[in-house]
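User: Batch of two.

Assistant: Item 1 of 2:
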Amino acid sequence: MIAQAIARRPPVLVAVMCVALVFAMAGFSAYWSLQPVLQPAWQMNNVTAGWLSGAFFGGYVLAVPFLTAITDRVDARYVFISGAVLSAAALVGLAFTATGFWSALPWRVIAGTGMAGCYMPGLKMLTDRLTNKAPRARAVAFYTACFSGGTAASYALAGCALEWFGWRGAFLFTAAGPALAGIALAVLVAPGEPEAAKVVRSHVLDFRPVLRSRKTMSFIVGYAGHGAELFAMRSWVVPFLVFCLGSSAEFTLNATLLAALTSLVAVASSIGGAELALRVGRVRLISCVMLATFALSVVVGFSSLLPFAVVALLCLVYSAAIQADSAALTAGAVNTSPAGHRGATLAVHSTLGFSGSLFAPPLVGAVLDLAAPLGGTTAWGLAFVTMGSMALFGFLVFMLLRRRLARTVLAPQ
């Protein structure tokens, strides 16, 4: 049986899971790619457009605690397949029924719920099927890097489909991806059992073993700051590039393809960052990256008057820098998770990590609207500084938790 053969070959299993994630994310960036068209068509200001972006993460955050924590008790494979079905249904719903903010809002929430069933449950499914910590850390790096690959593919697919079929056709076209991902997992991945817990939680949403682990929580809080900056940038990078290019409609496709490239470079950055973290230490890497991304956010934000080639290069560098600590943060949380509570750890990790993403896009939109009288260059500069400040805040809390942990370890018993 092909699924059993794949189960005996970990590299092949990792490849299957990575490809499945990319397919499941085919519609992930569709709204962001289409936003320059949808915003005037649906008569939305920047704050409203930001809330519709954030609604996706609202659905994600509401669903991910249960959908990820339940994988400590049931095979995560079934959760992933269910999430893929929801993701496809949400895109079909947007294609056929969305006419404005309110009609699109529930479908965006459902889309986020679908992703909650795919991303972290997929990681749990993969790590449950790997035994050694070193291969598991590298598998985490490749899998989380493919999140950026899926984001890039979605930007490009939606941007091209917009040119071919219009925005409704673009949503419908991208719905095929998660449908294919669900089918692939059902056929290619064998059922499995989750790792047994040493101490069984009283109920599936009992996260106390995770919350009591300061080492684990330091990585989780750092990931929250990272996620807020990352998705604020990805929500607004296409409108920013359209602003830098000009307001003509023909520039939209170029902006979406460049946005796809910014996500694609993040794949190599995430994998490279994970390998570097194994050599220099996760804490050192995470600290340097978070400080660097804040500095880069200032540079990129105020770069709109520079030649577009320079702006594009700066966006690529900024995107690569943001993603450099992603795998290190996630691997840190996974490898320090209490035994038997990896699903609960990933639930907390994902819930806090994406909670900031719910509010980050509308916050940036509010900055853009409030700063509009100062001119587009200043408004975008302040918007990007706001993005970078999210990672800076995550860095400060991350270091505070690490220092408290060090004091506890060194204190006399």
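Item 2 of 2:
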Amino acid sequence: MFKKFTNGCVSLVNKYLPDPFLFAVILTMIVFVLGIIFTGQGPLAMAVHWGSGFWSLLSFSMQMVLILVTGSAMAQAPVFKKILRAIASTAKTPGRAIVITTFVATFCCWINWGFGLIVGALLAKEMARQVKGVDYRLLIAAAYSGFIVWHGGLSGSIPLKLANITGLEEATAGAVTQAIPTSMTIFSPLNLFIFLVILIVMPFVTRAMHPEPSKTVTIDPSLLKDEEVKKYEIKTPADKMENSKIIWLLVVVLGFSYIVYYFATNGFKLGLDIVNFTFLFIGILLHGNLRRYIDAVFEAVKGSAGIILQFPFYAGIMGMMIGKSAAGASLAGVISSAFVSISTATTFPLFTFLSAGIVNFFVPSGGGQWAVQAPIMMPAGQALGVPAAKTGLAIAWGDAWTNMIQPFWALPALGIAGLGAKDIMGYCIVNLILGAIVMCAGFLIF
């Protein structure tokens, strides 16, 4: 019965899911029409909101690209590739390959979402090389499914924004006037409960989805060979500088000096900038050579093409979501307020989570999600007596949850794997359902 349901999801997605960019275009049209219907604004007003918002996330987009690039470049370091080969060698059966890939990808996404996406995809490819009879599509779906925990992890943008007082009061419409430490969000019992249950349970759920041998799609291991390690010829002074251990060491010492200083003076206070900074210099350290790191970054940037192309469109969608009519009505406000109106202090975090999952279809960005929902949900939570940290986590997990059927963030992993969104999203629907059960339970229990 379970595999029949999974096969139905796979078939449904293969028939109806368009290319991720076309998906963004379709969502643009849907929001355009819904904005006219539910806010009473005319087509020109919605077009103005769209155009005005189109470039509104450039700064945040760059931060997201850097998270992806620095995480990817670090994952390409020889020491990490050796680790991945060693991990893959422990999987002797297709089932074990799926379990291990899901577990490692999930844990790494909690550490850093960009790092986890790339490590998961690389490990999945290594599993396909070493394990016979494993379904390649499900391997990549397992690697991407780990992304469901990212917003409760160390690179989660909403917990990190709550930990930074700059602009916090304005973003929350005055509901939050003091920074909320990560001990109350990322490292809270609620957050750790959701993360650990998913980390432990999801690998076995994903394993149970493996197709029968007659329906298994494998790939020729020879097609997945890594490029040989590049050897650099040092002939000119420029070559010597690019490969100089002295210059590399000076850069590493400079970078880690600041990292040590930052944490010594700020404690374990994480922000997007320090996360990017740390992973940048860990990557430089592990590559052991500035020339090699430069090449790794050039390779990593290829995976960010989808982000660069689609982010402005989603920023435009966000512009229409928050664009207000003369009466002050916005589509995001209508959606969020509908859930607020039926909430109590007990159910408010749950309904906030569900509303965030809906909004994420149209604004698949943690920062964008925060900009859309924080001014509405944070004051509403405060009025009901719900802790601001819990409301913030509800928005964050709702944002992460529906990424399982929002193909936008799967693009880097799909690029590495050489697959399309249709190949994996059917499997991801099952993990979407699992995530909903665990997250809803967490918000009701705690």
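Residues 13 and 288 are 43 Å apart (CA to CA).
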